[in-house]
Structures are given as C-alpha cells and as structure tokens.
Design brief:
Length: about 55
C-alpha cells in the first residue's frame, strides 16, 4: 500500500520529507483516517482482536 518505503527510512528522513511536503503528509493522514474510519467498524464486526491490536 506504499507504507514500505516509509518504514525503511529513518525518522529523521521522514521528518525532513514531511517538512518538505506538508500538504502530501496532511493528505496522507487524512486518507489514513478515512481508511480507518471505514475499516475499523468492519474489523470490529468480524474479529475484535484485529481492532484491539491495531496501533496507528
């Protein structure tokens, strides 16, 4: 889903990137929030462990 590249870079690099592209970072967070608002109720209805184990 595109998260691989973020996890591979150091937090310093990511902070630099988010300062260079604040709008992209903001849009990404908005998209993640929207995705979670859709998927969390689905997960909750199917398997409670997925919801309780989720850490943003």
């Amino acid at each position: 889903m595109g998260n691989e590249s973020v996890s591979e870079m150091s937090s310093e690099e990511y902070i630099e990137l988010s300062q260079l592209f604040p709008t992209i970072d903001r849009n990404k967070k908005r998209a993640e929030t929207r995705i979670m608002s859709i998927t969390t109720p689905l997960l909750r209805s199917t398997n409670n462990t997925l919801v309780t184990d989720y850490k943003p």
